[in-house]
Amino acid sequence: QKELDYLVGAVANPKKPFAAIVGGSKVSTKIGVIESLLSTVDILLLGGGMIYTFYKAQGHAVGSSLLEEDKLDLARSLMEKAKSKGVSLLLPTDVVIADKFAPDANSK
């Protein structure tokens, strides 16, 4: 309860600059959280599998990475909304690629 109370207070009346990190595999499950945070944060860092939908929306090749093709317009919209609100929406600058999802995969 103490952690929850702190979190609610931190989001309702944040100290500036206010940054948040959101991760997950799908943009579709984080839409509400991301849109809500865009009204509050100065910096929003995204991680997890959802980044590939944002990369693809920016025109980057993502190979066979997890991707929500039907959410590309949403990703573009969220990036534009962040820009218009002056929010720095940050994606990872590097990723690990591999030929399969396994401990013995060839990766770089």
UniProtKB/TrEMBL annotation:
Organism domain of life: Eukaryota
GO cellular component labels: cytosol
Enzyme Commission code(s) on record: 2.7.2.3
GO biological process, one term: glycolytic process
GO molecular function, one term: ADP binding
The keyword DNA damage is annotated on this UniProt entry: no
Cofactor: Mg(2+)
Keyword set, alphabetical order: ATP-binding, Kinase, Magnesium, Nucleotide-binding, Transferase
A Pfam family of this chain: PGK
Entry keyword Kinase: yes
Family stated for the protein in its record: Belongs to the phosphoglycerate kinase family.
Protein known as: phosphoglycerate kinase
Organism: Brassica oleracea var. oleracea
